[in-house]
Amino acid sequence: MNMAAANGHLEVVKWLHASTAAGCTEDAMDLAARYGHLHVVSWLHYHRFEGCVLRAMDEAVENGHMETLT
């Protein structure tokens, strides 16, 4: 799930969430934020509990993805 989130594949993230016991770590939201996948960040925020770390917000800004912070 982490790699699907990192690559912006929301449908894969949703499928893994619903169909398997596969979980994810905070890396899922961290990487999605880093690469500007706002749709994935938003979905993870509302459907998963792992959250993210402060580093994710810093990397989103460094990579020009301010919209992921709003």
UniProtKB/TrEMBL annotation:
InterPro entries: Ankyrin_rpt, Ankyrin_rpt-contain_sf, SecEffector_AnkRepeat. Signal peptide: none annotated. Coiled coil: none annotated. Pfam families: Ank_4 (PF13637). This is Uncharacterized protein. It comes from Globisporangium ultimum (strain ATCC 200006 / CBS 805.95 / DAOM BR144) (Pythium ultimum). The lineage of its organism: Eukaryota, Sar, Stramenopiles, Oomycota, Peronosporomycetes.
